[in-house]
Amino acid sequence: MEKIRTRVQIKHELGRALLGEFVGTAILVLVINTVVAQNVVISGTSKNALININFGVGLGIALGVAISAKLSGGHINPAVSIGFLALGQLKPIRFLLYYLVQLAGAFVGAALAYLVYRDAINVFDGGNRAVVGSKATAGIFASYPAPHLSAFGGLVDQIVATAFFLFFILHFTDKRNHYPSWTQPLLIGLTFVTIGTMFAGNAGYPCNPARDFGPRLFTFIIGYGTKVWCGDASYCWFWVPIVGPLIGGVLGAYLYQFAIGYHIPAETEYEVVVTRELQPLTKEGEVVP
Amino acid sequence: MEKIRTRVQIKHELGRALLGEFVGTAILVLVINTVVAQNVVISGTSKNALININFGVGLGIALGVAISAKLSGGHINPAVSIGFLALGQLKPIRFLLYYLVQLAGAFVGAALAYLVYRDAINVFDGGNRAVVGSKATAGIFASYPAPHLSAFGGLVDQIVATAFFLFFILHFTDKRNHYPSWTQPLLIGLTFVTIGTMFAGNAGYPCNPARDFGPRLFTFIIGYGTKVWCGDASYCWFWVPIVGPLIGGVLGAYLYQFAIGYHIPAETEYEVVVTRELQPLTKEGEVVP
Amino acid sequence: MEKIRTRVQIKHELGRALLGEFVGTAILVLVINTVVAQNVVISGTSKNALININFGVGLGIALGVAISAKLSGGHINPAVSIGFLALGQLKPIRFLLYYLVQLAGAFVGAALAYLVYRDAINVFDGGNRAVVGSKATAGIFASYPAPHLSAFGGLVDQIVATAFFLFFILHFTDKRNHYPSWTQPLLIGLTFVTIGTMFAGNAGYPCNPARDFGPRLFTFIIGYGTKVWCGDASYCWFWVPIVGPLIGGVLGAYLYQFAIGYHIPAETEYEVVVTRELQPLTKEGEVVP
Amino acid sequence: MEKIRTRVQIKHELGRALLGEFVGTAILVLVINTVVAQNVVISGTSKNALININFGVGLGIALGVAISAKLSGGHINPAVSIGFLALGQLKPIRFLLYYLVQLAGAFVGAALAYLVYRDAINVFDGGNRAVVGSKATAGIFASYPAPHLSAFGGLVDQIVATAFFLFFILHFTDKRNHYPSWTQPLLIGLTFVTIGTMFAGNAGYPCNPARDFGPRLFTFIIGYGTKVWCGDASYCWFWVPIVGPLIGGVLGAYLYQFAIGYHIPAETEYEVVVTRELQPLTKEGEVVP
């Protein structure tokens, strides 16, 4: 084993990081697309299934972040990367490379999800891949706006939702908050569950330019037609979940610093208390010591 | 404050323990009865609401155990107490006293739940408290069997469910498993969420003689009539969620010891590894260190 | 970065605390109002969506408490602040200032939620903002009683629910219980999930005078009319979720101390056990060491 | 007690391990089969109940892994064991023995579930045990493909789902990731909740040859007839949830190593940071220190 490791291991840190972002984003999109597929082509788009989608998507983010954390820092989202870029914690060239492999990972994740649900999609739409109508399945892969949503409303939705996401990513990963490493992917995932309960009704809360554009490109290539870019709305949608999250990512990162981060007292104002478990002197029959 | 504490504090450990069991069981029953009330008189008994009930009840157990853990060990259930009695970890007299205050706490919890939902119940049943029929509300407080359930089936249900519960309570509180104290009430609550997804369809998974009999007595006293004892089934039900859990509690405690507990290697076979957090040397832009 | 910090950081501890309460309460109300908005104007008020609302609201509380904890202690609720006031842990002037910024934060959170859901609300009600009727949307922002609920019943509901909340906030933050810092916002959020499963059916469990009055004032200002104060009930409702929670907050704080807190043994009765992870000597193929 | 332990304890490590796998798999199948039974014969197969099934099954895995972790490593699934076999962490003879007791445990778990739900199944199907049709109950115990699923699609589903599962089991149990022991069964269970939200619609995500074949054999023996092997599909199904997971288990184990594991930097590249809790100097009225 150790021999294989030595031969296989990518020596350059950047190479490992790009691999991590690729794998993490592929996992993320595989989860999100299959979760939505199940609701579109099998369970029906029952509104009550929202909680099932929200938890599936949130856990998908937790798993994608966890798997890539040690290699790349677990961004798996250009909106997260641009937030760190804005705060000077990521170099521009690295941001661009991350963005590229995130897109590639998202594309592969969508293809995997398609592989898993091809039988079901075929029976559902009779082989006629559609972006709009009652047998539309393009929404499995990329986001489309609800009928009530204007282009401006969509942009607001994506900016606010992504800023909210970055705001808490920065909180949970701020070393001064001392969240144990293992909790961070889970807490980021739970934040996205919250975002699902808040924003799902407008446009399916993509909040991630790679997660949205990669699968959209995939649907275009496999024959969903040009409607994947503009759907049936009076405006083109595809750029909204790209531009909105990128703006929201920068906004959320700054908001965290100016509203919270810069004001947290330095740790010298704190006293260190070593963690310890206290257990009462033995008493009979106690369940929780 | 410190002065009040000195004057108020119960000096005798047993007194504090009985107070803990009383408060914890009252909390438990307040949660369970209001959770079910909401589904019976307001949301309707929609089956899809099962997950809402399961989480509400499980969290109620977690909260009840947590609040009483330091004073009494957090049993809040005679079936749990009898399990510890069977293993020689609780004295018989203490078991009896625990049982009594658990019953009293359950009675008070039911009364509190009734206070909160009296308006809703009055509108729902027009002031006519019923145990059976489409306007029955007795099921808010105590358990009643589903129409398909025989007396024997009910006994099996309660024995298996409660043995399952004790089996995992002993696992989570076994010191050799090193579950941090703060996790134990939550894990016991999650075990009961699981039990809800497993057993709810038979008789509402009471698994607790105090939680069931206390509220049942309360409904009898406030005028639900003698049907609270035998309902409309061809057999009397009320003794099943008393006898079943007490048998299941003993069975589950022994099962844990004979199937798992006695076989866990002594800790001398283990090497001690001090917990530590590892953080990579600073890299730019990483979310999860 | 360090330079910006030095220039931006609020030097006075009270200033930082008020900022924390403002931001935390705004986050809280943004979450709660968007979660409810999604159910009112998009998913429909399907009862089965209760679990989705309960988790959304509970996670919103967890996030709001977490983000403000280091700056202000994470009250984000006058009922919580008055509880600490009653126990002598918060000065009266500080209580008043907290209350004011909590109200301001709640107002801003409601405005943000309105911004996000304006398109959807416009399509839903045709631009006719209503407090009652099938197209009413005022319930997105502030609480309104269910038809069955009397003024007295509403007061009982809010007192019991908020006392329950404070009871467990004090438990989870009691230093003697040694809950790790990072778990406390989550456990407080889970307590509120529980409260949602218990009390949602009466009046939507506001349990927070700022969270309720701030958004109510916002709806009054943007044109929902005077019905936001008294709705269609035979009594005025708006004061109930102010007075009830304030009473409940004081009651819950005292209840915790007298029923539990004062009776927890001093730590000198405990032996200190240093936390450690035990790992078995290497065995082949084991999943969980 | 100590005396009984000495007499009862299985002295040989392999014997204890086989006991652990037997008990853990029995627990797992008892949970999964009762969870599904509740939905099939009592709640109806309402699609909205998916979240209830997903959490029940995921928690069942968490409990089964937790209870057997110290004795056997908590595989309770031949697909997990074959993954460790492929990585050279389990000897072939041990793999075979694990597989056998996992099958036996699954059989016993199914029998227990049948005992608990016999009344309900009898009322539901009038005593006529059926594999297909509106009164079919065989799906309580073993998996059957959805009508849209081809044999190839089913194989893809089981390979991808199980590879996903192993991928994350290896992540969570990789010592270099320092997940605390107590979190590992829970995180493995949450991974399976995610798999439920992703794959449930195709064939009920068995992902475990023992969990599927043991109960299938049980249904054959108690009189469901030969249709349990091939159902009503144009192809035989029973071998798919055996072969698919075994392939997926090996694939997922290698994928983890080649895509992630081999690239994680050695710990010498990390600096050790001792975990500590920081608590601010006492300030008045703070909830979360």
Automatic annotation (TrEMBL), chains A, B, C, D:
Pfam families: MIP (PF00230). InterPro entries: Aquaporin-like, MIP, MIP/Aquaporin, MIP_CS. The keyword Transmembrane helix applies. GO terms for molecular function: glycerol channel activity; water channel activity. It is found in: Membrane. The chain crosses the membrane at residues 21-43, 49-69, 96-117, 151-173, 185-205, 237-256. GO terms for cellular component: basolateral plasma membrane. The keyword Transit peptide does not apply. Gene3D superfamilies: Glycerol uptake facilitator protein (1.20.1080.10). Keywords: Membrane, Transmembrane, Transmembrane helix, Transport. It is a multi-pass membrane protein. NCBIfam families: MIP. Belongs to the MIP/aquaporin (TC 1.A.8) family. Aquaglyceroporin that may modulate the water content and osmolytes during anhydrobiosis. This is Uncharacterized protein.
